[in-house]
Specification:
The structure is a single chain. The chain has about 800 residues and is α/β, with parallel strands linked by helices. It is built from 20 helices and 43 strands. It has three domains: about 260 residues, Porin; about 160 residues, 2-enoyl-CoA Hydratase, Chain A, domain 1; about 260 residues, Alpha-Beta Complex (2-enoyl-CoA Hydratase, Chain A, domain 1), CATH 3.90.226. Helix content is about 30%, strand content about 30%. Helix 11 packs parallel to helix 12.
């Protein structure tokens, strides 16, 4: 074969040729009787896998019930029934006036390799017609177009009906030629399947092995023709008619031997939906989805001294909108809004809504309780907006509150020693000053102006509103639904059934459309394997050393000992050709940030794979430092980034000890050891040393920014000084390369990885580990939080941390 042909294809072609060449040879053991028409150990799926290759259980459908009746032309009838789930199956078969069998099967899950086993209890009227039989199965699917299967049957060589069941080995090869092209593999690939199986007895010569060649072609979605030909001249022809959740399968077997002539009829019910032309109008529906809470990349949950942290993961929302777009049964979408926040994440939902509308699938927003700016921002992207009469809309303006605790701490005898570099570096400043400095005030006012303009300009266009009228509604007053309807910000006042009626009419489904939650509706997976050429690593929360978790000081945080191994696995995954780092972090420990930054640069250098960075709601200070190794940086318009500066914080209890009569005596070796003690305020010398230390760190930070972003020192200094920039300001100052969300970053990663735009892929995602029950409820124990505070002076408290406000 040509050297240009991929090695797996050469191996598959050689195996196919060898199997076909054996077709004219004598045969030994028989293949099991067909159920659907051409069961190959390499291509069997779902429930029927219980009989033919248990390793294939759970493929195509998560669960299935199948009942079959085989009517032999000369001989007894055969009845079979099987129920399967993702990892197991239970089957019963019975020969008329003959033996019966009960089979229990199980399988492992896996993308490339699956293993399975089945245990059968054979029984009949006589004592010698009872036995236990064991079969092992293997299924390997290294690509969307290639599948290998194997079974080892009768491993225990049981005696049944007066004779021994000899071990039999079956090898199978499956090919999907149309799936060789990544551009059409997901749509046309599963429409044509070719198979070849070889079965041989353990004690038989190889030249008497039996061969069966088979194939299946799906003429239109839901109508499949299949057949198989054996080396002894027997052949089967069959047809399948599939509805969305049910199917009919029939085939006829022919052969020179009268015993091999039969017809089989089977019906099946399955949980996941098939795409089919036989779906009736009654099956068309609208999809309903709930969007609420503070959106984020990960489900962050924890409790800190400053309040609770809870994040609604946005991945499920993306999947539901994508499913609604590609699902032919879904005619429109009803979005149930409930106090949704994080404008950067909401902005990434709006293009998905726009694609639905462009595809002729209307989207209606419904607000039962009212909402805020986030709800209205997403609702304005929809075709229609409905709110209940009782709903209220308040606090639609913007407000930032800064509280300062210096005087309170002084009365308690507490002190926070703090030094920072950069006039705009505001993290922890509320503990060391009594009012907002001019630099902080400048940033706050600028960010408020930008956030207001982004919101107003979008909503004015979407809702065709007068700008002055909209600004009047954003004054912070509480507005009833009727007022917003009068102003045109919403379309009508009504209830859920009214929103459904409006959407149903726009979809052509009438006043009472069928409605489903797509998050609970699975679709049948036809592809043998979906490639994962892009890896996505999520970095959500403050940055700290150790493993990712949550504590009572910082709330949820991302740990270097969790994130670095995830980056390692992502870059070293042989299938991944590009890595996307998704950041939603205000920064944190400088040590952890440096370690993560170094790991990303090292892995890029060692693997030669591109790294694309996507910034969520905030990727500032340490979050921005972590982004610098990226080959291309994306930020949303609402992303807060930059904050190139350094802060050093150390609590002191000296005054508190004095107020409460605590006497402290000191014994030390080293004149500057007192600077590390929680029991002593900083001296002027200690403060100068801290200033010097963070100055060195700040210079290193700026140097890395200059090298990564192609900026000279003066340009870096102008954009640094701890200042937070909104997305478009960051783009103008060359801190990022483009405005866009995670989807845009993935598109760039595909381009650099050479993945065709039309090719269907899955993502290899690396998310924060799921915390334990206690940690989910209250975070890390109080003593762990205190231990973290207490050891900060020993490990150093230099931090890249930004202080940002929610919009």
């Amino acid at each position: 074969m040509s050297a240009g042909v991929p090695r797996p294809l050469r191996v598959a072609a050689l195996a196919w040729a060898l199997l076909a060449a054996s077709a004219a040879r004598a045969s030994a053991p028989d293949f099991p009787p067909a159920l659907l028409g051409h069961e190959s150990v390499s291509a069997v799926e779902a429930a029927s896998a219980t009989f033919f290759n248990p390793a294939a259980l759970g493929t195509r459908y998560p669960s299935e019930l199948l009942l079959a009746w085989t009517q032999a032309e000369f001989g007894p009838d055969l009845y079979r029934g099987v129920a399967s789930g993702r990892a197991g199956g239970l089957a019963v078969s019975h020969v008329e006036d003959g033996p019966s069998a009960v089979t229990l099967a199980g399988a492992t899950s896996g993308r490339r390799l699956r293993l399975g086993a089945s245990l059968s209890w054979l029984g009949g009227a006589a004592d010698d017609r009872r036995a236990t039989d064991l079969t092992l199965g293997l299924l390997a699917r290294p690509s969307p177009w290639l599948s290998f299967g194997a079974t080892a049957a009768h491993l225990g060589e049981p005696r049944f009906d007066g004779s021994r069941l000899d071990r039999a080995w079956t090898l199978g090869l499956g090919l999907r030629p149309l799936a060789l092209s990544p551009r059409v593999a997901h749509c046309w690939g599963p429409r044509l399947t070719l198979t070849a199986d070889l079965i041989a007895g353990e004690d038989e010569r190889a030249d008497v092995a039996r061969v069966r060649l088979g194939g299946e072609v799906e003429l239109v979605p839901g109508l499949a023709l299949r057949g198989a030909y054996q080396d002894d001249g027997d052949f089967q022809l069959g047809v399948s008619l599939l509805g969305t959740r049910a199917g009919y399968h029939g085939h006829a077997a022919h052969g020179d031997d009268d015993r091999h002539r039969s017809t089989t009829h089977a019906v099946s019910l399955h949980r996941a939906e098939d795409r089919t032309v036989f779906a009736g109008r009654a099956e068309r529906r609208i999809a309903e989805m709930r969007v609420g809470g503070h959106l984020g990349d990960d489900a962050l949950a924890g409790v800190s001294l400053f309040g609770g942290d809870a994040t609604t993961p946005v991945a499920s929302l993306h999947r539901q909108l994508e499913r609604a777009l590609e699902d032919p049964l879904t005619a429109g979408v009803l979005i149930d809004l409930g106090r949704v926040t994080n404008m950067a994440q909401i902005e990434e939902l709006r293009p998905r809504v726009a694609r639905l509308r462009a595809a002729g699938k209307p989207v209606v927003a419904f607000m039962e309780y009212g909402g805020g700016r986030g709800d209205l921002y997403l609702a304005s992207a929809c075709d229609r907006v409905v709110a209940t009469e009782e709903a209220d809309f308040g606090a639609l303006g913007l407000r930032v509150e800064r509280r300062y605790y210096r005087s309170l701490l002084e009365r308690w005898g507490l002190r926070i020693d703090r030094v920072s570099v950069g006039a705009y570096k505001s993290a922890y400043r509320s503990f060391s000053v009594d009012s907002t400095p001019p630099a902080d005030r400048e940033v706050i006012e600028r960010n408020l102006d930008q956030i207001q303009e982004l919101f107003v300009s979008a909503v004015v266009v979407d809702r065709r509103l007068d700008r002055a009228r909209l600004l009047g509604l954003l004054d912070g007053r509480l507005w009833p639904s009727a007022e917003l309807a009068k102003a045109g910000l919403i379309d009508s006042v009504g209830y859920r059934e009214d929103a459904r009626r409006i959407l149903g009419r726009r979809c052509g489904l009438g006043d009472r459309p069928r409605h489903v939650k797509l998050s609970r509706v699975e679709k049948a997976e036809r592809a043998w394997r979906i490639p994962r050429p892009i890896a996505v690593v999520y970095a959500s929360g403050a940055i700290n050393t150790g493993r990712s978790g949550s504590d009572l000081l910082n709330g949820p945080y991302v740990g270097s000992e969790t994130l670095i191994p995830q980056l390692e696995r992502a870059f070293r995954d042989p299938e991944a050709r590009a890595v996307v780092l998704r950041i939603e972090s205000v920064g944190g420990s400088s040590l952890a940030t440096h370690l993560i930054h170094h790991a990303a640069e090292r892995l890029k250098r060692e693997t030669k794979k591109p790294l694309i960075v996507s910034m969520g709601g905030v990727a500032a200070s340490g979050g921005y430092h972590m982004a610098l190794p990226g080959d291309r940086l994306f930020a949303d318009r609402f992303t807060r980034t930059g904050s190139i500066g350094v802060v050093y914080v150390r609590p002191s209890l000296e005054g508190w000890y004095q107020k409460h009569g605590v006497r402290q005596e000191e014994f030390e070796r080293g004149t500057e050891m007192g600077a590390w003690s929680l029991g002593r305020d900083w001296s002027a010398r200690a403060r100068a040393a801290a200033d010097s230390a963070i100055g060195v760190t700040y210079a290193a930070f700026k140097a890395k920014v200059g090298r990564a972003r192609g900026l000279d020192p003066e340009q870096v200094e102008r954009v640094a000084q701890g200042r937070v920039w909104m997305g478009e300001d960051a783009l103008e100052r060359r801190l990022v390369d483009a405005i866009g969300g995670l989807e845009d970053a993935l598109t760039e990663a595909r381009r650099r990885a050479g993945v065709p735009e039309q090719a269907r892929i899955a993502l290899a995602e690396y998310r924060r580990p799921r915390p334990g029950l206690i940690e989910r409820l209250v975070g890390t124990a109080l003593q762990d939080a205190w231990a973290r505070i207490a050891r900060l002076p020993e490990s150093g408290t230099i931090e890249f941390r930004a202080d940002v406000e929610d919009e």
